[in-house]
Write a structure and sequence with these properties.
Length: about 325
């Protein structure tokens, strides 16, 4: 189908390009991948056109800003990346928009940068690559802690979505099995943990209009949502939420099909969160656009439902001026 909107779609500065090397399938593909992720022009547009994608919201690759230990340098990198992305998407605003990269090492600076990007560039929200590192490699900083309440207040005021994107997990329990730390498992495990921390922190009681997006069919949470709430009744262990944790997830999270093109997983996600919270995306260029689009186009469901997932849900969520 034509008219699809995709928004877990990545782009890179030259200086953050190497951050992506470990996630590309072998050196033989690296040359092609470099060209794809650095391009925000004709090649990307041709790929979109071939696969019925009308519009992309583009974000900086991972982990990029989140892995910069020096806060001043993180602030500078985020600003330069956003300036460059604004310049590029501004050449084709009919086809592209941007997500802000944010220096989450400094919550006040992150709030200010998001405000600048939304106000000055018309960016549609932010995409942040998981936990941030500051001053030292470990431990990572998660955004449910009190220091980030002011930042979330700004996101709430701006009324834009926040995409929580994965990065590699560094837990000692992965020692000896580095393959587990990234996209096969660690990406989902860490993003799911981060998401559940947000749900259990009281954040959505303070700011009930926050809209958080996670990819890959919900990083495993839809499959486990019933059991999470069922067991929380018996072992809350300090849980302070005013409502069941799953209610916060269903009210404040959206999930995308990015990088998870599997019918049974799709059916689970659709049943768990409902059609209004499920949206199409690709995860380009880490995933193949044709794989994503042909899988989605082949789903056996009403065309009106496919249109919601592929297009109209995104138009509503991002307040897009598309017909």
């Amino acid at each position: 189908m034509n008219g699809k909107i995709a928004f877990e779609e990545h782009w890179s500065l030259l200086e953050t390009l190497e951050d992506s090397r470990g996630f590309v399938g072998g050196s033989s593909h690296w040359e092609t991948f470099q060209r794809q992720i650095l391009d925000l022009g004709d090649e990307r547009l041709r790929e979109m056109d071939r696969n019925g994608i009308e519009y992309q919201i583009v974000s900086l690759n991972a982990p990029a800003v989140q892995a910069v230990l020096d806060t001043r340098k993180a602030v500078d990198l985020a600003r330069r990346a956003n300036d460059k992305l604004a310049e590029l998407v501004g050449k084709r605003p009919d086809r592209f928009a941007g997500f802000a990269a944010l220096p989450m090492q400094d919550p006040e600076a992150a709030a200010a940068e998001l405000t600048r990007c939304v106000s000055d560039f018309g960016f549609k929200g932010a995409l942040v690559n998981g936990f941030s590192q500051k001053d030292k490699p470990d431990p990572g900083i998660y955004y449910d802690i009190p220091a980030y309440r002011g930042f979330w207040g700004r996101v709430s005021e701006l009324d834009v979505p926040f995409y929580l994107h994965p990065r590699a997990n560094r837990e000692a329990s992965y020692d000896g099995h580095p393959w587990l730390t990234t996209s096969p498992w660690g990406f989902a495990a860490d993003t799911a943990l981060h998401s559940l921390r947000l749900c259990g922190s009281g954040l959505f009681d303070d700011y009930p209009n926050l809209k958080i997006i996670i990819g890959h069919m919900g990083e495993g949470i839809p499959y486990s949502l019933w059991r999470i709430d069922a067991r929380m009744r018996f072992s809350p262990r300090g849980y302070t939420g005013k409502r069941p944790l799953g209610e916060y997830f269903l009210d404040n999270f959206y999930i995308t099909t990015s990088g998870n093109f599997y019918q049974p997983t799709f059916q689970c996600a659709l049943s768990a969160v409902g059609i209004d919270r499920l949206l199409f995306s690709v995860d380009y260029p880490f995933e193949d656009t044709k794989d994503a689009a042909s899988w989605f186009d082949g789903l056996q469901m009403a065309e009106s439902d496919k249109l919601k997932i592929a297009r109209t849900n995104a138009i509503k969520l991002f307040k897009l001026d598309l017909k």
